[in-house]
Write a structure and sequence with these properties.
Helix content is 44%, strand content 21%. With 302 residues, the protein is of the alpha/beta class. It has 3 domains: 3-82, Orthogonal Bundle (Arc Repressor Mutant, subunit A), CATH 1.10.10; 89-161 and 264-287, D-Maltodextrin-Binding Protein, domain 2 (3-Layer(aba) Sandwich); 163-262, D-Maltodextrin-Binding Protein, domain 2. Strands 3, 4, 5, 6, 7, 8, 9, 10 and 11 form a 9-stranded mixed sheet that branches. Strands 1-2 form a two-stranded antiparallel ribbon. Strand 7, helix 9 and strand 8 form a beta-alpha-beta unit. Helix 1 (3-15) packs across helix 3 and helix 6 packs across helix 12. The longest helix has 24 residues, at 59-82. The radius of gyration is 23 Å and the shape is elongated. The mean pLDDT is 92. It comes from Thalassobaculum fulvum. Keywords: DNA-binding, Transcription, Transcription regulation. Belongs to the LysR transcriptional regulatory family.
C-alpha cells in the first residue's frame, strides 16, 4: 500500500477539503482525487462522502483514518531511527521567538551542525502567531515558540518552561517591599508586540485584577530589555534572558505578590513521512532546552 496515498487520505480528512490537502502536500487537486480514488478501490470501501460544499468521512473512513495515522506515524519513526545522518541534506526553515534566541538557540545550531554537516538552517525570528501560520502554509518547516497551538496535523512537542518576573531599572522610582498589581500599573508597562501571545498575557494579567487602563508600550525582546534598562517602564520578562542585566545591577527583580504567568516553549512541525529533519531537530531542541534548564535556578527554568 502506498504511504503517500495514506498520507493524502489523512490530510483530506484533517482539512475536509481536497483543494486544501493539495496545497498542503504541494500537489494538484487532480492528484489528490486520483490517490483517494485509488485507495478506495484497493480497500473496496468508500472513505468520503462528497457533495458540492462538503467532504466528510464515512463511518468506515473514520476507522480507516485512525489506522492510517498509526501506519504513517510508525513509518516516519522507522525512517528517523534507521536513516544515516550523513545522508541528510538540504535546508530546514526554522521560525524562532526571541526568548529562544536569547537562551539555548546557539547550542542547538552547534548540535545540528555537528550531527548533520550538510544541512543548512535558515532562521527567521518572529512571534508565535506568524510562525504557526508560516508552518501551516508551508513557508517554514519547524517552529520554536510559545504553545501549544491547536491546528490540523500540527505536532506540539513541549520543550521547557521559563518563569517570568517583573523587573525595572534601579533608576526608576519603584518602591521597595512587596508590590501589588495596582502598584505596578502606576508605571508605564513595556510588553511584547501587540499580536503576540505574550502581549495577551500582559493585558490579561491586569484585567483579571479589574485594571483596564494601563500605559502599555510594545516592542521586541531586545528592545524591551533595552527600554527597561533605560528606565522607560516596567516589564515582565523571562528571567533566563536577562541574567547579565540582573547580575550587573542594570535591572532588579520586583517583589510583586501576584506572579506573572510562565512561558512554555514548544517545537512545532507538520509531521510528513518524507520530511525526517523537522522532528529530528525538534528532538535536539528538547535536549538543548532540558540541558539549559538544568544549568539554571529551578525557580527560573524547568
Amino acid at each position: 500500500m502506498n504511504l503517500k496515498f495514506l498520507e493524502t487520505f489523512i490530510w483530506v480528512a484533517r482539512l475536509k477539503s481536497f483543494s486544501l490537502a493539495a496545497e498542503r502536500l504541494n500537489t494538484t487537486q487532480a492528484a489528490v482525487s486520483h490517490r483517494i480514488a485509488t485507495l478506495e478501490r484497493e480497500l473496496g470501501i468508500r472513505l468520503f462522502e462528497r457533495d458540492s460544499r462538503d467532504v466528510r468521512l464515512t463511518p468506515l473512513g473514520i476507522d480507516a483514518r485512525e489506522h492510517a495515522e498509526r501506519i504513517v506515524r510508525l513509518a516516519a519513526d522507522f525512517r528517523r531511527r534507521m536513516i544515516n545522518p550523513a545522508s541528510l541534506t538540504g535546508t530546514v526553515r526554522i521560525g524562532v521567538i526571541d526568548t529562544v534566541v536569547y537562551s539555548w538557540l546557539p547550542t542547538l545550531i552547534e548540535r545540528v551542525r555537528e550531527a548533520y554537516p550538510d544541512v543548512v538552517l535558515e532562521l527567521n525570528a518572529a512571534i508565535t502567531p506568524e510562525i504557526s501560520e508560516d508552518i501551516l502554509d508551508g513557508r517554514l518547516d519547524l517552529g520554536l515558540m510559545n504553545g501549544p497551538v491547536d491546528a490540523p496535523g500540527l505536532v506540539n512537542r513541549q520543550l521547557c518552561t521559563f518563569a517570568c518576573q517583573w523587573v525595572a531599572s534601579p533608576a526608576l522610582a519603584v518602591p521597595d517591599g512587596p508590590l501589588e498589581i495596582e502598584d505596578v500599573a502606576r508605571f508605564p508597562i513595556l510588553s511584547f508586540p501587540t499580536s503576540s501571545s505574550r502581549h495577551g498575557s500582559v493585558v490579561g494579567y491586569f484585567q483579571r485584577s479589574g485594571i483596564e487602563n494601563i500605559r502599555l508600550h510594545t516592542a521586541s525582546l531586545a528592545t524591551l530589555i533595552r527600554l527597561t534598562t533605560d528606565g522607560v517602564g516596567l516589564a515582565a520578562i523571562p528571567t533566563v534572558t536577562i541574567e547579565r542585566e540582573i547580575a550587573s545591577g542594570a535591572l532588579r527583580i520586583l517583589p510583586v505578590r501576584t506572579e506573572f504567568p510562565a512561558i512554555s516553549l514548544y517545537a512545532m512541525y507538520l509531521e510528513m513521512e518524507d520530511r525526517p529533519l523537522p522532528p529530528l531537530i525538534a528532538q535536539m531542541a528538547a535536549d538543548c532546552a532540558t540541558a539549559f534548564c538544568a544549568s539554571r535556578d529551578p525557580a527560573d527554568a524547568w
